[in-house]
Specification:
The protein is mainly alpha-helical and 203 residues long. The chain has 10 helices and no strands. Helix content is 55%, strand content 0%. The protein starts with a helix and ends in a 31-residue tail after the last helix.
Length: 203
């Protein structure tokens, strides 16, 4: 959603409210009452809804997630030049959209997953500004294979691989974790990034 539309509607709302406040006599006529109704009820609700949609879209961006300095090491880990670093391999090989990398892997792929994740995001903001972020940062709940299977299930290279096909039932039932079973257990490793080699994408 273009931010310009939200700003234009916001400015229109401010102007309409200013007219109603500065010249309350306009509300005597039918047109004035309609203006007051739009200014005080319809426009504010529309601006709030459009603003919320705009913010939801923006908060899915990798840039947004990494704008918090405590997340900086996790952003660096996406550029580690090692095939063992799971997020780096996905990010560098475009297996996930780079501009939505954090959201793609960390969202909850259920019917209310996006709402659930945004509420958790508010908890992050609370901890950052009011309380204190955990150190090291930990997931609220164990990573569910569902998030991996959202993309990988149906991929021939995944389903026909000897290891995956032999364990597919356990993987689908989340009985064998993709990230803690010893198969793909090197995730961000944010505390151990200083001595590593990094990939530099070509301009």
């Amino acid at each position: 959603m273009p931010i310009g539309l939200v700003l234009a509607l916001l400015m229109g709302t401010v102007v309409a409210i200013a007219i109603v406040i500065a010249a309350p006599g306009v509300t005597v006529s039918r047109g004035g009452k309609a203006l007051a109704f739009l200014a005080l009820f319809v426009f504010p609700v529309a601006v709030s809804l459009l603003g919320a949609v705009e913010h939801m879209d923006r908060s899915k961006q990798t840039q947004f997630c990494l704008s918090c300095h405590v997340m900086e090491p996790y952003g660096r880990s996406l550029y580690v030049d090692s095939k063992t670093y799971l997020p780096a391999v996905h990010f560098q090989n475009n297996r996930i959209p780079r501009d939505h990398a954090c959201y793609t892997c960390h969202t909850n792929y259920t019917i209310y997953g996006t709402v659930h994740d945004k509420l958790r995001g508010l908890k992050h903001a609370y901890k950052y500004y009011i309380s204190k972020p955990a150190n090291p940062i930990k997931l609220y709940e164990p990573f569910n294979n569902r998030e991996c299977l959202h993309c990988h299930l149906g991929a021939r290279s995944f389903e026909e691989g000897t290891t995956h096909s032999a364990l597919m039932d356990d993987i689908k039932k989340n009985q064998m974790s993709c990230t803690t079973s010893g198969c793909h257990d090197v995730i961000h490793n944010a505390a151990h990034l200083d001595q590593l080699k990094y990939w530099s994408p070509q301009p």
